[in-house]
Amino acid sequence: SGELYCSLPNPRNVHFESINMQNVLHWSPPEGTGKGVLYKVKYSVYGVGKWIRKPECRNINRTWCDLSSETSDYEEQYYASVKAFLNGMCSDWMETTRFNPLTDTKIDPPMISVSSTDKSISIILTAPEKWKRSPDKESVSLLQVYPGLQYNVSVLNKKTKKRWFFSISNNTLVVPWLEPGTAYCVSAQIHVTTPLLDSGFSKEHCISTLKDK
Amino acid sequence: GACRVSMSMAEIRAGFTAIKANIQSRDPIRTLSVLSHPHSLHKVKSSDRCCITHHLFTFYVDRVFKHCKTEDSFVNRKISSIANSFLSIRRKLGQCREQNNCVCGEESTEKFKQILANYEGLNVTSAAMKSLGELDILLDWMEKSH
Fold first, then answer.
1. pLDDT in tens, B64-74
2. How many other β-carbons are positioned within 10 Å of the β-carbon of residue A48?
3. Considering CB atoms only, which of A47, A100, A194 is closest to B143?
4. Chain A interface test: which of B129, B140, B141, B146 (most A C-beta within 10 Å)
5. Is A2 a residue whose pLDDT tops 70?
6. Does ipTM exceed 0.85?
7. What is the overall mean pLDDT for chain A?
8. Which architecture, in CATH terms, is A111-208?
9. What is the 3 state secondary structure string of B36-65?
10. Has domain A12-101 been given CATH number 2.60.40.10?
11. Which residues of chain A have a CB within 8 Å of the CB of B30?
């Protein structure tokens, strides 16, 4: 294909960064090349014979390329590769390790909504959605992707600093026998046992129980 | 009745994750897969799952683990730990077969033949290392479909 003489240093650290299965290829520029380097990207499905070019990431000067569309089937595994160009010279193709969207993605914390009575608080948790091509596409919850998904919930009494931890499979939790007129702060994390995936804990949501009638 | 076998999936998964990069880096052939192409495990009918699972565990015990010795003792320890888990699960699946709770239909036999053909298309060491590097394909399918 009329490849140029490839003596340019290679792109470095070519790898996927994935959150909720938005799968973005990242790399570092070749060592000592400064400005003006352009890149092109290709990817392949593991076990299938051909590399496929990504037109939107051809002759780009940024060092990332969103391959979420191309890697959205999480029953497959993938490789991606990057080549650098500068002043008529090029680098070798530099590949990722094998990428498995199901096990190699990171999961965002769940969304939390809380309400309270005088002696209890009710917590509703929502797992993040899998990345989708466009807003009008059908949403897929990560709960559907990871059937064994659970929630770890932390509830803190702000007055006594006493903290409880709960581990639940369904998405609602009612914490009873609380003190009226007291502030409680709730935070939650997603836990998938196998493959082992844990989100970070969410931001704290604080609410006060109603005062005694 | 159904074949119910308890499995330490999280333990097997953790063992594989610890050596995945090492093992997959020993498999330079991107264009061939033992388990996932041309036919995906995810297309196996539910009635054939038990049989295919038994076939696959037998395949890994008899034709994969023993050909995966490496120069890295940490990797070797993880491989033997996974192999022991597979051995015990294969035994339980075998008991299901004996009690006729794990029937093999034509499709599962055909599917497994394809897997063996993929495996036999490579030399033993390459085929075994590739198969071991595809353990997450098997685990993903089992967790999703079982």
1. 999 999 999 99
2. 17
3. A194
4. B140
5. no
6. yes
7. 95
8. Sandwich (2.60)
9. CCCCCHHHCCHHHHHHHHHHHHHHHHHHCH
10. yes
11. 44, 46-47, 79
